[in-house]
Design brief:
This protein has 95 residues and is α+β, with helices and mostly antiparallel strands. It has two helices and three strands, in the order αβββα. It has a three-stranded mixed beta sheet.
């Protein structure tokens, strides 16, 4: 839980950062589902441990979002898909 993560880090001389939760200092009962560095990794005192939470069913929890690169290569067939149902209707109405 969030409160346990903060207390455990403080007892070891570490800091905790939650990139997906700006309200982290007030969070109490959300469960930590991932951390970096991994549990058991030795780190120097005063290091920062990043944690992510499970937001529960229907509330997201996708973690940190960042741009991914590189973009797909250019070229090849590129087209815009038609509205759902229009392509099938056109095919079915053809003679």
């Amino acid at each position: 839980m969030a409160v346990d993560a903060r207390e455990s880090a403080r007892a070891r001389g570490l800091f905790v950062n939650a990139p997906d939760r700006p309200d982290f200092p007030r969070v109490v009962v959300d469960y930590v589902v991932r951390q970096y560095p991994q549990p058991g990794t030795e780190v120097p005192r005063d290091s920062v441990v990043h944690v992510w939470f499970d937001f529960g069913e229907g509330d997201g929890g996708g973690g940190v979002r960042e741009p991914r690169g590189p973009e797909p290569p250019t070229g090849g067939l590129r087209r815009e898909l038609e509205e759902p149902g229009t392509a099938c209707a056109a095919l079915l109405s053809s003679p």
